[in-house]
Amino acid sequence: MYLELHFGCLFYLVVDEEDDYQILRRAAKQHWDAMKTYYEAAVDAFMKGDRKKATYLLEQGKYHNQKAREADEKSAGEILDTRKSDTQGEVITLDLHDHRPKEALSLLKLHLRSLANIPLAFRHLKVIVDTDAEDITKGKRKRMVVKFLEKESIKWAEEEGKPGTYLIQLDQIDPNKLNFVKVSE
To answer: Cα–Cα distance between 7 and 25 in angstroms, integer?
Structure first.
């Protein structure tokens, strides 16, 4: 692990494998916050007539924008967890419980669109919408996901003993019948 210091912000950039996702999310948030701080400081410097400082701060903001995007992309890759289950065949897990409702729905759509087009690669998509942790969305994420699945006529079942965890059988999804794919293309 190494540290990077920019504009008074400390960043942890290289992480251990055990908790990559959470650390990458934290790094992305730090970079987004730093980007915002740099852009605000650049506006202030520009308003004061200090173009050289404004240009420097703008470049630093762009740097953190790029780093935040990279951390977001890496964390998106960490979201998926592929496991072999004796009873279900190939299962891929999509953990959405840390995401805002709209972001969770977008990620679900992205993964359904991608996985439904891969014949026999995975039999099930296990979607974790809620956990035992406190839900700050008051169930909105769960309601949005269920409403979406029902609207798209995607068959799903709540995993026994795990409320907020849904199993979607991917081999029963016809990608040509998904309304959200037709709209977004």
So the answer is: 20
